[in-house]
Amino acid sequence: MDLHFGDSKPTDEERAAVDTLLGPPESSWEGADRSDADLRWARGGREARARRDLLLPGLHAVNDRVGWISEGALGYLCRRLTVPPAEAYGVATFYAMFSVKPRPATVLHVCTDLACMAAGAPELCEGVESRLGPGSGVTVERGPCLGLCERAPAALAVRAGDPVRTAVAAPATVERAVLTAGAPGSAAEEPPAARALPQAGDPSLMLLGRVGVVDPADLDDYRAHGGYAALRRAFALGPAGVIREVTDAGLVGRGGAAFPTGRKWQATASQPDTPHYLVCNADESEPGTFKDRVVMEGDPYALVEAMTVAAYAIGAHKGYLYLRGEYPRALRRMEHAIGQARARGLLGDDVLGQGYAFDIEIRRGAGAYICGEETALFNSIEGYRGEPRSKPPFPVEKGLFGRPTAENNVETLVNVLPILTGGAEAYAAIGTPGSTGPKLYCVSGSVERPGVYELPFGATLGELLELAGVREGLRAVLLGGAAGGFVRPDELHVPLTFEGTREAGTTLGSGVVMAFDDTVPLPRLLLRIAAFFRDESCGQCVPCRVGTVRQEEALHRIAERAGAAAADDVALLREVGRAMRDASICGLGQTAWNAVESAIDRLGAYE
Amino acid sequence: MTAIPLGTPRLLLAFTLDGEPVRAPEGSTVLDACRAAGKDVPTLCQGDTLTPKNACRVCVVEVEGARTLAPACSRKAEEGMRVRTDTERVRHSRRVVLELLASSVDLSTTARVAEWIEEYGAEPDRFGPDAARVDEEPRIDNTLYVRDYDKCILCYKCVDACGDQWQNTFAISVSGRGFDARIAVEHDAPLTDSACVYCGNCIEVCPTGALSFRSEFDMREAGTWDESAQTATTTVCAYCGVGCNLTLHVQDNEIVKVTSPHDNPVTHGNLCIKGRFGYQHVQNRD
After folding, report:
1. pTM score > 0.90 for this model?
2. Distance, in angstroms, between B49 CA and closest chain A CA?
3. Are B117 and B102 in contact (CB under 8 A)?
């Protein structure tokens, strides 16, 4: 490798931001003053290249401190990590939260996604933009779901500096959003996580029982509420015993694919190649999904413990928690919890004095829905563009850093705790034979009590909506998020199980339940979904890169049309959608047409 | 004594291709097997000297039991697998992918694509006159080669050839994302401000003509480019002692571009700036 770094110099501030992360440079090769030793040998090289995975944290460091990433800053970071600048530029321009062009220090992200749209996001955006015009020192970015759907509409202010300041306005009025952007440091604290739980205090809650009950900052309180009993049981059972228990419990992944967790762990554990990695996917970016955020904010130690159990089962000594960039409070809570657990010997070289080493590193996403795809997430951690990899090989064989990796999302992992404390049999008795255990749902839209709900599998959609207080005039329910599908108000008897929704021709997906009453214009919703996928496509494969654009164009053309006038474009949509489903590399392109198709077929959107 | 490399013996895998039993050496791809069986599977991003990126998706085939179609170029053949290369489902995806591509970029200099568009009945115009296109002016910022992103299908071959697969210069990458993704050098700068070493290996692998010799680009603009009137002569580069093979493309007794045979075991089609671009002295007749 013969890298060319150009002449742009970092400012002192940019250099400080990078050095805070990487430590001061040691040799002139990476930007320090030349010393005599530099004339004798070169440092950096292979050793520095092995730290390529610090590229994303490095970009965050600069963006957090300065607000954008200049040529000089990128060049300096590349020099420190021996990363080719062209590649780093490709990475920096991949993520929505970074800018490679100068911009004001404060960015106000205003959510324009489904729940917020139904709650008046378009008016909010217009109001905020007219108040925060050029010269206001704030950039307003209309963006995808911020995961605050229960408090829609939502806005997130990020002010670069040392330290970076973040604040949330939700539910946001123009006034509140402008105030929050103006002074993110002194904005009011968000309501506690438990406010997102309409069922708070219900003693039957298995996954959410501690949210709002324990102090999320207090490890002792967590232990006083049954914390770390599962890990003790895991050590008593041994790794194979844990996997057997999880398999017997019938736990399947809650991220949408419903793959048996025990089988995934077994496949990872049995790989001869080492090291093994555990990755927790906390890149919850599906529009309408916010359950993982609530769990991490309200019960962070549960995730730390569950990750430790999972890692022990698969023989991993290092776990990565890939956390959405748009979740500053969840990040703070998880950072604190991991630090406390480490200080108390619950992470580190000798977990619980059992001679087992495990530690967790947090990696922050930077605004890319695609990074929730498991292999794109690996690329993102490794410091490459978050483009999905071709499968096979599967992650259990070649995952993070090319090693055997088990990747689970937050909800899946926290299910492991009741499985171990209560036993597989008791767990499997909950729900239905095909879908065991409890399930979390994110209910938002036209309901009285939006929030995260926990119900045993098998409850019907109607029962769930009843709990949430569905409003009069229900027009449609979006099940499973933007990648899921719409169901009609007369289909509320659908049982919320993997097999039940499949039979009904829809999907449970990530557990999104969004209710829309007849005041929400359906074509506008569909346009927003199409725009979302067009925005979030990584661009790697043709069916998704161009297909999402052609779909959005067709939806624009028929936004005001119906019947025969729309027939041509509906047929075109179907053809493109079919090829996207069949020929795209990953789930994003394969599912991008689902919701629109279901709106046409089940709701008669353009009849 | 001449050493004859025999390679390690490889297991033959048995599977079926369109119902016919075929055998392919372990490690070969479905595409290898298709070509060995004489089947014409269209490919755009696949390259004979590079690891398949499977980004274009025109080579998709149906593997029985799989939820989605599989790219033949990178899907490894497996014992007992049943592959169909010409079902309605396969043809549909190929047709739509060709339509999507041809509606968004200029494929006029892409080899064979017109033939496939006809074969699959693709109608790129049906997305309407307002369909978004890449539509960018060619970037002419140096005397050796031209980047015309209006013709770029983002096959990643130039990125791989410039990066760890051949040149190890890492001057180009993909920037942005989605429809706005583009091949770019750092900060989207002119090539002259980048890490480019002008080896031209990216031109060698470009399947669409998005990267081309300045000489070819200028002649096409002037309407004087005539491939049928060209001869190609393979010779040995005279600059250094490595002995790379050069193929000189000559039109009207002038060298118009230089390529290198991909089956050369030493260079696999790669050259350096001198071999690729340093041919002017040959035709300096003063």
Report:
1. yes
2. 19
3. yes
